Amino acid sequence: MSRGKRYDDEPKLNIKKVFAVAIAFAVIIMFIFLIVDLLNGGNSLSNKNFATAYYAIYENNKWGIIDTKGNTVIEPQYDEMITIPDNSKKVFICVYDTNYSTGEFKSKAINEKNETLYTEYQKVEIIANNDANNNMWYESNTLKVQKDGKYGLIDLNGKNILACEYDEITPLIGTKNILITTKNGSKGAVDCLGKVIIENNYKTITSLTSKYEDGFIVENAEGKFGVISYNKEIVLEPKYEKIANVYGNNMYVVTENGVSKIVDKEGNTFLEGKFEEVKEINVDDIVVKKSGKYGIVSKTGEEKVAAQYEDLKYAFSEYYIAKKEGKYGIINLTNEEKLEFKYTYLSYSSEAGFIQAETGNYETELLDRDLQVKVKGIISEINIDKGYIKVREDDKYKYYNLSLQERENTDILKENTLFLKKENGKYGYTNEKGIVVVDYIYDDATEQNNYGYVAVKKDGKWGCIDQNGKVVVEPTYDLTNNLVIDFIGSWHLAEDINANYYTK
After folding, report:
1. Which one of 73, 153, 389, 459 is at 20 to 30 Å from 120 when CA atoms are compared?
2. In contact, 169 and 192? CB cutoff 8 Å
3. What is the pTM of this model?
4. Which three-class secondary structure state does DSSP give residue 156?
């Protein structure tokens, strides 16, 4: 339909002219940025945002909080260390009025304004756990609270996830996301979302392995042991004198009437009385101990590798890490030596897919799954999340991906604004274009941390530089006793890295 003469005569845009003007404008903008870059010596850095997080600080015998921009959030004023369940959130747990003779204390949660949160509870506590190597972690979105003398759980938003009706709530040591509850003297288990996994009917509850998915060992009032799955299924009735912390292929290692054996959930029995210990179950291959040595058998008793090794652990495929005469090597299921017994330690990273071999002279070899040595040096960092390995070779740092292929740090550390380089025996930093931002004047230095800071060493002292290459702290700190050198602004990581706080 015609729109009428008034519309037909309407002036039209000259598209070619509009396009030409747009291009000219873009060129002008690019020229302005180029001039700014040249005026800065070509050293302008990418405008990248680093994560904001929160950490405890310690100064003048008092505790406070900083953020990773270097700002003081809570002035150091508390006598006890402030703990942070999730360092990306502004919820901090304070302990106060501690009676060291009785162990009694008060605790509360505060926000970044030092205001008390969750005031309906008499106590608010963090839930700390640790693994076999004493590495500690906090259950990040779960807090234990006390009301009217009973304990329950809330999340960091204050939402009630488990009613305050328990005499005690403690972590299941070594296992993430699982808590042990006590009610009327009996133990039960819940996850960190408040889901009840095991009712409060047992004398003790322990983890079968470090993975909660594998289930739990329970002890009844008569002192007999059984297994309950994460899905609440009673897998093994509590009738055994002992259940070992070993699981594989739906099989369990138990002791009944003084005899050790392997059983499955259907009630079948294997290898009864035919081992001193079962170390691992890998499908149908079982690492057993006989006469003080380790070997491999099938569940029907077929000997695959004679018990002759001081240690034996599954790696991958048909390969096992073995120890003989104090040295480690690798064998296969037919007991062929696939890697010479010459290492002081061997481990396999299932996440990354390579073997880490310690040679005994502070050097490490990294081998691929074909057992070929791909990297030699001193391992500085293995970062599975970001997919790289940092190695010190010939007094220089080199980077590799998890396939053990060498890469430049600019390829690996894509979020960085500063990149560590070494020239003529001294360290400095370039930007992502390779242009020098920090001159080569330092005796040692670190790569940029997650918050944009680098640590630099000169004349035996450490200092800090920010993401723009600006000196925050001149090298003045003696950090000889620090295992890890790390800075947030003018604060440096304390000697006790497990405590994870910063000081001056």
Report:
1. 73
2. no
3. 0.85
4. coil
